[in-house]
Amino acid sequence: MTMAAFVITLVLSSLLAAGGGVSATSTQQCHEEDQAALLAVNAGLGSRTGSSRGAPTRGAATGTSVDCDNTTGRVVGLSVSQDGNLTGAIPGDALAGLAHLRSLELHHLPGLTGPIPDSLAQLGNLTQLTISHTGVSGSVPAFLSSLTQLAYLDLSYNSLTGAIPASLADLPNLAAVNLSRNHLDGPIPPLLFSNLVNISGDDVEQEQEQPQQLASLWLSHNNLSGGVPAEFAAVRFAYVDLSRNALAGDPSPALLKKTAALQGLEHLDLSRNGFQFSLTAVELPEKLGFLDLSHNAIRGRIPAAVTNLTDLQVLNLSFNKLCGQVPSGGVMTRFDATSFQHNKCLCALDLNLPRHLPPFAPTPNRKAKEREARLHKNMKTTTTILVLLCSFLCFATSEEDRCDPRDKAALLAIKAAFGNPNQLTSWTSNSSCCDWHHVDCDDSTGRVIGLSVVQDASLTAGTIPDEIAGLDHLESLDLRRLPGLSGPIPSRLPASLSSLTISRTAVSGPLPAFLGELAALTELDLSYNALSGAIPPSLAALPNLWSVDLRHNRLTGALPPLLFHNQHDDDDEDGDEEEAFYFLKNLRLSHNNLSGGIPAEWAAVQFGTVSLSRNALAGDASALFGRDKPLQLLDLSRNAFSFNLSEVDMPEQVGYVDLSHNDIFGGVPAQVAELADLHRFNVSYNRLCGQLPTTTMDASCFQHNTCLCGAPLGACNDKPLINN
């Protein structure tokens, strides 16, 4: 019997002895149907392990509670939490017997696995459902839409996959949804919280008398795509966290406006996505206390109105493409340079901020930190001359400037080559191309530096226009989700490119060798196309490249051994501050037909992400492992790798490891149990042996091996296990 089951027994015994539930004043005994259901829940939880534990202390009993209605004696609340010994599935059939349950909380139970059972659909009185910080997997169940009383849904910190069911929009009382820290994909349901749309003008007086419910939405740390639904503009939000997804487009019409619906918005986190819009003209909700827009592709200037947000305590606009002067005064005295760093051309006249904000994040090592400290000291002692220089940089270009005529001509030719798609209707010869949708200009020079054409169904056929090469100051090119785009990658692209995305198209042919000549390139995404042939070795010549995504193509041949090697990740003995900055390397090559092994040279690369699944790779992949490596995601599944897993050290920061469907032998390292960030570890379909270390992963992560044993698999016998 686990501690959670023991405590339920203890609480149930108290209910039967004292009557009426947790209140000592109650005279109503626990209803016999609920008594039977609780005993079944107890058995379901207690049957997971063969061990038993002694009488719990007062502190131990705080992890489980049963709440009864003092009038009817029916169980209306059940909470089980903080039990590391509980393993197995949610006892759904037993829980379904608690027909009057209004609140169910199962949280911080890492051994709880399997899907969310359909039998919970019978709990029609639920107003709160929490299944959080567990090993639960599978999809977000569609039956949730039948729980019409549900107001609060928390399925965070699990291993749920698939799309968010659109049927959640049918819940008439839903006010809070937390699905953060899962593996969800697909779009955000546009009608979510349609029950909380802003009232019409005729109802203002009624709202003042009876303030209406505000919505809270947590969807961070998933893989959601698409944009922020336009329908959200009418939802009365208090809290929105969409950070760390793959969202794109312009969220400002829905979430960055001073409207009646958003007058209660206090927390907005859109960081680490692919949002692209101009910040210049946005309207910031007046009650904002937390605003994080960092790590996107946001352009324009910081609006002066930000200084008037009296409740603002957290502001992060770093890692974008903002220009101009950082507003001063008001609440801006609360923020330092880290709120604005790594932008295109931001500068500050406020003496509390450095004059020119640093463009890169420092490396996490001692020497780099010392250099950063020296750099900060130098910034603080900058003379008044830099103030004048900053003033010049901020105001030298007036709002009347228009884009360069050469760029305008090239863009109009590109529009014609694309067949004048609907998305480019703002591109007209009598307007400034710097005001056109999907075009980004440098504020100081008027040259076009960004072009993005994404998800346009009217672009039904055609090739990538050669005229793009005429945009000779272009830094970012994004052509994505255009299935009608076909043919090869053009033989020439602007040498100024730092980010190149051609993804989810029908583009075919080889990867052109000239990509190795784009010396400024930092990010290359050619995923989900029909490209063939080998990965050109010339990519190794790119000195600033840190992200390569070529997954879901038809590539063949070997992995380039010198990829990411023409760079400087090591400590610089000369103490130059400029070399104190670097990015972790991200490599995604899954779903191709690559062959050969892992190059020995890759052992020296500081990878953050390596995804090589579903190829024909073989040999020893242990060069990618190492305790001190910064690797966070490693997917080598469905190849033919063969090495001794017992002899590798897992990276201490790793959160996702999939080594399934290979020929890996040895045992699972005991270190796996110590990895605090690890939420996925799949070694199924290999030749592993030995006892498993304590783990929260479910049995499917270890199945089809030679002789693995121990929870969550069967018990180990007394015979010695030979790992070979």
From TrEMBL:
Keywords: Glycoprotein, Leucine-rich repeat, Membrane, Repeat, Signal, Transmembrane, Transmembrane helix. It is found in: Cell envelope. SMART domains: LRR_TYP (SM00369). Residues 1-24 form the signal peptide. Residues 405-442 form the Leucine-rich repeat-containing N-terminal plant-type domain. The keyword Glycoprotein applies. Its main location: other. InterPro entries: Leu-rich_rpt, Leu-rich_rpt_typical-subtyp, LRR_dom_sf, LRR_N_plant-typ, PGIP. The keyword Glycoprotein applies. PANTHER family: POLYGALACTURONASE INHIBITOR 1, POLYGALACTURONASE INHIBITOR 1-RELATED. Belongs to the polygalacturonase-inhibiting protein family. This is Leucine-rich repeat-containing N-terminal plant-type domain-containing protein.
